[in-house]
Amino acid sequence: MKLKAVQDYYPEELSYCYGCGKLNEHGHQIKSFWDGEETIARFTPKEYHTAIPGYVYGGLIASLIDCHGTGTAALASYRAADREPGTQPPFRFVTASLQVDYLKPTPLTAELELRGKIVEIKGRKVVSEITVSANGEITARGKVVAVQVPENFIKNTINE
Amino acid sequence: MKLKAVQDYYPEELSYCYGCGKLNEHGHQIKSFWDGEETIARFTPKEYHTAIPGYVYGGLIASLIDCHGTGTAALASYRAADREPGTQPPFRFVTASLQVDYLKPTPLTAELELRGKIVEIKGRKVVSEITVSANGEITARGKVVAVQVPENFIKNTINE
Question: Which residue of A50, A60, A66 is in closest CB contact with B58?
Fold first, then answer.
Protein backbone atom coordinates (compact mmCIF):
# COMPACT_ATOMS: atom_id res chain seq x y z
CA MET A 1 0.00 0.00 0.00
CA LYS A 2 1.41 3.35 -0.97
CA LEU A 3 1.82 5.75 1.93
CA LYS A 4 -0.56 8.68 1.60
CA ALA A 5 0.65 12.25 1.89
CA VAL A 6 -1.23 14.80 3.98
CA GLN A 7 -2.36 16.46 0.74
CA ASP A 8 -4.13 13.22 -0.24
CA TYR A 9 -6.44 13.84 2.72
CA TYR A 10 -7.30 17.44 1.87
CA PRO A 11 -11.03 17.76 1.13
CA GLU A 12 -11.67 17.48 -2.59
CA GLU A 13 -12.81 21.11 -2.93
CA LEU A 14 -9.51 22.22 -1.36
CA SER A 15 -7.33 20.01 -3.54
CA TYR A 16 -6.84 22.36 -6.49
CA CYS A 17 -3.84 24.34 -5.22
CA TYR A 18 -1.28 24.76 -8.00
CA GLY A 19 1.50 23.91 -5.57
CA CYS A 20 0.08 20.91 -3.78
CA GLY A 21 -3.44 20.05 -4.95
CA LYS A 22 -3.76 16.47 -6.14
CA LEU A 23 -6.53 17.55 -8.54
CA ASN A 24 -4.59 20.39 -10.24
CA GLU A 25 -3.29 18.71 -13.36
CA HIS A 26 -1.13 21.74 -14.27
CA GLY A 27 0.43 22.07 -10.81
CA HIS A 28 3.33 20.68 -8.84
CA GLN A 29 1.31 18.23 -6.73
CA ILE A 30 3.85 18.12 -3.95
CA LYS A 31 3.37 15.53 -1.22
CA SER A 32 4.35 16.04 2.41
CA PHE A 33 5.04 13.19 4.84
CA TRP A 34 6.41 12.73 8.33
CA ASP A 35 9.99 11.53 8.63
CA GLY A 36 10.43 11.15 12.38
CA GLU A 37 10.09 14.59 13.95
CA GLU A 38 10.58 16.32 10.58
CA THR A 39 8.41 16.51 7.50
CA ILE A 40 9.67 15.72 4.04
CA ALA A 41 8.68 16.35 0.41
CA ARG A 42 10.52 15.78 -2.83
CA PHE A 43 10.24 17.54 -6.16
CA THR A 44 12.14 17.29 -9.42
CA PRO A 45 12.04 20.60 -11.32
CA LYS A 46 11.39 20.65 -15.03
CA GLU A 47 14.05 21.92 -17.43
CA TYR A 48 12.10 25.14 -17.94
CA HIS A 49 11.98 25.96 -14.20
CA THR A 50 15.21 27.84 -14.74
CA ALA A 51 16.57 31.16 -13.50
CA ILE A 52 20.14 31.74 -14.63
CA PRO A 53 20.82 28.77 -16.96
CA GLY A 54 21.46 25.58 -14.99
CA TYR A 55 19.78 26.77 -11.79
CA VAL A 56 16.25 26.65 -10.36
CA TYR A 57 14.28 29.93 -10.39
CA GLY A 58 13.57 31.40 -7.01
CA GLY A 59 9.81 31.50 -7.46
CA LEU A 60 9.61 27.71 -7.68
CA ILE A 61 11.69 27.35 -4.52
CA ALA A 62 9.38 29.82 -2.77
CA SER A 63 6.32 27.89 -4.00
CA LEU A 64 7.66 24.56 -2.76
CA ILE A 65 8.55 26.02 0.64
CA ASP A 66 5.12 27.64 0.83
CA CYS A 67 3.16 24.47 0.08
CA HIS A 68 5.38 22.17 2.13
CA GLY A 69 4.92 24.71 4.94
CA THR A 70 1.13 24.49 4.81
CA GLY A 71 1.36 20.70 4.49
CA THR A 72 3.69 20.60 7.49
CA ALA A 73 1.20 22.74 9.42
CA ALA A 74 -1.58 20.27 8.66
CA LEU A 75 0.57 17.28 9.63
CA ALA A 76 1.58 19.00 12.88
CA SER A 77 -2.02 19.82 13.72
CA TYR A 78 -3.21 16.24 13.30
CA ARG A 79 -0.34 15.01 15.46
CA ALA A 80 -1.00 17.69 18.12
CA ALA A 81 -4.67 16.67 18.17
CA ASP A 82 -3.65 13.02 18.37
CA ARG A 83 -5.65 12.34 15.21
CA GLU A 84 -4.79 10.65 11.93
CA PRO A 85 -5.06 12.61 8.66
CA GLY A 86 -8.40 11.65 7.13
CA THR A 87 -10.30 11.97 10.42
CA GLN A 88 -12.82 14.80 10.68
CA PRO A 89 -12.78 17.75 10.61
CA PRO A 90 -9.88 18.21 8.17
CA PHE A 91 -6.96 20.59 8.81
CA ARG A 92 -6.22 22.89 5.87
CA PHE A 93 -3.90 25.88 6.07
CA VAL A 94 -3.07 28.96 4.01
CA THR A 95 0.08 31.05 4.25
CA ALA A 96 0.11 34.28 6.22
CA SER A 97 3.77 35.00 5.60
CA LEU A 98 6.74 33.45 3.87
CA GLN A 99 10.44 34.19 4.25
CA VAL A 100 13.00 32.62 1.91
CA ASP A 101 16.78 32.99 2.08
CA TYR A 102 18.55 31.83 -1.06
CA LEU A 103 21.87 30.60 0.31
CA LYS A 104 23.41 29.46 -2.96
CA PRO A 105 22.25 28.64 -6.49
CA THR A 106 20.08 25.50 -6.61
CA PRO A 107 21.17 23.19 -9.44
CA LEU A 108 18.40 22.33 -11.87
CA THR A 109 19.68 18.81 -12.48
CA ALA A 110 18.77 17.26 -9.13
CA GLU A 111 15.71 16.10 -7.23
CA LEU A 112 15.05 18.63 -4.48
CA GLU A 113 14.40 17.55 -0.92
CA LEU A 114 12.35 19.75 1.39
CA ARG A 115 12.53 19.21 5.13
CA GLY A 116 10.26 20.90 7.63
CA LYS A 117 10.56 21.49 11.36
CA ILE A 118 7.75 22.72 13.55
CA VAL A 119 8.73 25.92 15.34
CA GLU A 120 5.42 26.80 17.00
CA ILE A 121 1.79 25.71 17.17
CA LYS A 122 -0.42 28.39 18.69
CA GLY A 123 -4.17 28.35 18.23
CA ARG A 124 -4.90 28.32 14.50
CA LYS A 125 -1.31 29.29 13.60
CA VAL A 126 1.59 26.98 12.85
CA VAL A 127 5.12 28.22 12.17
CA SER A 128 7.59 25.94 10.42
CA GLU A 129 11.13 26.16 9.10
CA ILE A 130 11.79 24.51 5.77
CA THR A 131 15.08 23.70 4.08
CA VAL A 132 15.61 22.93 0.40
CA SER A 133 18.48 20.64 -0.53
CA ALA A 134 19.96 19.50 -3.80
CA ASN A 135 22.58 16.74 -3.93
CA GLY A 136 22.60 16.68 -0.12
CA GLU A 137 23.47 20.37 0.22
CA ILE A 138 21.09 22.98 1.64
CA THR A 139 20.60 25.74 -0.94
CA ALA A 140 17.62 27.65 0.50
CA ARG A 141 16.00 28.08 3.88
CA GLY A 142 12.48 29.29 4.55
CA LYS A 143 10.05 30.14 7.31
CA VAL A 144 6.31 29.75 6.84
CA VAL A 145 3.59 31.16 9.06
CA ALA A 146 0.49 29.15 8.19
CA VAL A 147 -3.04 29.86 9.39
CA GLN A 148 -5.90 27.41 9.43
CA VAL A 149 -8.57 28.14 6.82
CA PRO A 150 -11.77 29.18 8.63
CA GLU A 151 -14.52 26.64 8.02
CA ASN A 152 -17.05 29.33 7.09
CA PHE A 153 -14.60 30.74 4.52
CA ILE A 154 -14.46 27.36 2.86
CA LYS A 155 -18.24 26.94 2.87
CA ASN A 156 -18.86 30.45 1.52
CA THR A 157 -16.26 30.02 -1.20
CA ILE A 158 -17.53 26.67 -2.34
CA ASN A 159 -21.15 27.74 -2.34
CA GLU A 160 -20.60 31.00 -4.22
CA MET B 1 6.84 52.13 -30.71
CA LYS B 2 6.13 49.77 -27.84
CA LEU B 3 7.91 50.69 -24.63
CA LYS B 4 10.50 48.08 -23.72
CA ALA B 5 10.63 46.55 -20.26
CA VAL B 6 13.92 46.13 -18.42
CA GLN B 7 13.68 42.37 -19.03
CA ASP B 8 13.76 43.03 -22.79
CA TYR B 9 17.32 44.31 -22.28
CA TYR B 10 18.58 41.32 -20.30
CA PRO B 11 21.36 39.55 -22.22
CA GLU B 12 19.95 36.70 -24.27
CA GLU B 13 21.72 34.00 -22.22
CA LEU B 14 20.08 35.45 -19.07
CA SER B 15 16.59 35.67 -20.55
CA TYR B 16 15.37 32.18 -19.71
CA CYS B 17 14.07 32.80 -16.18
CA TYR B 18 10.68 31.14 -15.70
CA GLY B 19 9.36 34.25 -13.99
CA CYS B 20 10.64 36.99 -16.27
CA GLY B 21 12.71 35.65 -19.16
CA LYS B 22 11.38 36.73 -22.54
CA LEU B 23 12.77 33.51 -24.06
CA ASN B 24 11.09 31.08 -21.63
CA GLU B 25 7.99 30.02 -23.52
CA HIS B 26 6.59 28.15 -20.49
CA GLY B 27 7.14 31.01 -18.07
CA HIS B 28 5.35 34.14 -16.84
CA GLN B 29 7.43 36.63 -18.90
CA ILE B 30 6.67 39.50 -16.56
CA LYS B 31 7.75 42.98 -17.67
CA SER B 32 8.88 45.71 -15.30
CA PHE B 33 8.76 49.42 -16.13
CA TRP B 34 9.26 52.72 -14.38
CA ASP B 35 6.15 54.62 -13.37
CA GLY B 36 7.55 57.84 -11.92
CA GLU B 37 9.56 56.91 -8.83
CA GLU B 38 7.93 53.49 -8.63
CA THR B 39 8.24 50.42 -10.81
CA ILE B 40 5.24 48.58 -12.19
CA ALA B 41 4.42 45.19 -13.70
CA ARG B 42 1.13 43.54 -14.54
CA PHE B 43 0.18 39.88 -14.69
CA THR B 44 -3.08 38.05 -15.27
CA PRO B 45 -3.05 34.64 -13.58
CA LYS B 46 -4.37 31.60 -15.37
CA GLU B 47 -7.40 29.76 -14.04
CA TYR B 48 -5.18 26.94 -12.77
CA HIS B 49 -2.99 29.29 -10.68
CA THR B 50 -5.41 28.64 -7.86
CA ALA B 51 -4.99 28.03 -4.13
CA ILE B 52 -8.32 27.80 -2.36
CA PRO B 53 -10.86 27.92 -5.24
CA GLY B 54 -11.27 31.48 -6.54
CA TYR B 55 -7.96 32.77 -5.17
CA VAL B 56 -4.40 32.96 -6.45
CA TYR B 57 -1.92 30.50 -4.95
CA GLY B 58 0.79 32.02 -2.80
CA GLY B 59 3.67 30.60 -4.79
CA LEU B 60 2.69 32.61 -7.87
CA ILE B 61 2.47 35.78 -5.82
CA ALA B 62 5.92 35.04 -4.37
CA SER B 63 7.28 34.41 -7.88
CA LEU B 64 5.89 37.67 -9.24
CA ILE B 65 7.27 39.65 -6.29
CA ASP B 66 10.62 37.91 -6.70
CA CYS B 67 10.99 38.67 -10.42
CA HIS B 68 9.56 42.17 -10.22
CA GLY B 69 12.05 42.72 -7.38
CA THR B 70 15.04 41.72 -9.49
CA GLY B 71 13.66 43.77 -12.40
CA THR B 72 13.22 46.74 -10.07
CA ALA B 73 16.81 46.28 -8.90
CA ALA B 74 18.05 46.40 -12.49
CA LEU B 75 15.94 49.48 -13.30
CA ALA B 76 17.21 51.23 -10.16
CA SER B 77 20.82 50.40 -10.98
CA TYR B 78 20.60 51.86 -14.49
CA ARG B 79 19.01 55.00 -13.11
CA ALA B 80 21.59 55.28 -10.31
CA ALA B 81 24.37 54.93 -12.89
CA ASP B 82 22.63 57.50 -15.10
CA ARG B 83 22.51 54.95 -17.92
CA GLU B 84 19.70 53.65 -20.11
CA PRO B 85 18.81 49.93 -20.10
CA GLY B 86 20.52 48.45 -23.13
CA THR B 87 23.82 50.23 -22.49
CA GLN B 88 26.79 48.06 -21.47
CA PRO B 89 27.52 46.31 -19.22
CA PRO B 90 24.04 44.99 -18.42
CA PHE B 91 22.63 44.86 -14.89
CA ARG B 92 21.18 41.46 -13.95
CA PHE B 93 20.19 40.50 -10.43
CA VAL B 94 19.31 37.36 -8.50
CA THR B 95 17.41 37.16 -5.23
CA ALA B 96 19.25 36.78 -1.95
CA SER B 97 16.11 36.87 0.18
CA LEU B 98 12.40 37.26 -0.21
CA GLN B 99 9.74 38.11 2.36
CA VAL B 100 6.04 37.96 1.50
CA ASP B 101 3.13 38.90 3.73
CA TYR B 102 -0.22 37.66 2.47
CA LEU B 103 -2.61 40.33 3.74
CA LYS B 104 -5.81 38.91 2.31
CA PRO B 105 -6.85 36.37 -0.34
CA THR B 106 -5.97 37.55 -3.88
CA PRO B 107 -8.92 37.03 -6.24
CA LEU B 108 -8.10 34.94 -9.29
CA THR B 109 -10.41 36.88 -11.59
CA ALA B 110 -8.40 40.10 -11.85
CA GLU B 111 -5.25 41.39 -13.51
CA LEU B 112 -2.65 41.83 -10.77
CA GLU B 113 -0.62 45.01 -10.47
CA LEU B 114 2.82 44.92 -8.87
CA ARG B 115 4.39 48.14 -7.67
CA GLY B 116 7.99 48.45 -6.51
CA LYS B 117 9.75 51.04 -4.38
CA ILE B 118 13.50 51.22 -3.96
CA VAL B 119 14.47 50.98 -0.30
CA GLU B 120 18.25 50.83 -0.61
CA ILE B 121 21.02 50.60 -3.17
CA LYS B 122 24.31 49.60 -1.61
CA GLY B 123 27.16 48.27 -3.71
CA ARG B 124 25.89 45.22 -5.62
CA LYS B 125 22.76 44.93 -3.46
CA VAL B 126 19.36 46.51 -4.08
CA VAL B 127 16.46 46.22 -1.63
CA SER B 128 12.93 46.89 -2.85
CA GLU B 129 9.43 46.72 -1.45
CA ILE B 130 6.77 45.32 -3.73
CA THR B 131 3.00 45.40 -3.38
CA VAL B 132 0.51 43.18 -5.21
CA SER B 133 -2.95 44.61 -5.91
CA ALA B 134 -6.11 43.16 -7.39
CA ASN B 135 -9.06 45.39 -8.21
CA GLY B 136 -7.19 48.36 -6.70
CA GLU B 137 -6.73 46.68 -3.33
CA ILE B 138 -3.36 45.59 -1.94
CA THR B 139 -3.50 41.87 -1.13
CA ALA B 140 0.19 41.06 -0.57
CA ARG B 141 3.32 42.92 0.33
CA GLY B 142 6.89 41.78 -0.23
CA LYS B 143 10.49 42.73 0.32
CA VAL B 144 13.22 41.57 -2.04
CA VAL B 145 16.95 41.70 -1.43
CA ALA B 146 18.52 41.38 -4.87
CA VAL B 147 22.22 40.94 -5.60
CA GLN B 148 23.91 41.63 -8.89
CA VAL B 149 25.01 38.48 -10.73
CA PRO B 150 28.81 38.40 -10.81
CA GLU B 151 30.09 38.66 -14.38
CA ASN B 152 32.45 35.69 -13.98
CA PHE B 153 29.53 33.56 -12.73
CA ILE B 154 27.65 34.31 -15.91
CA LYS B 155 30.64 33.53 -18.13
CA ASN B 156 31.42 30.29 -16.30
CA THR B 157 27.80 29.17 -16.43
CA ILE B 158 27.32 29.91 -20.08
CA ASN B 159 30.61 28.30 -21.10
CA GLU B 160 30.11 25.10 -19.10
Answer: A66
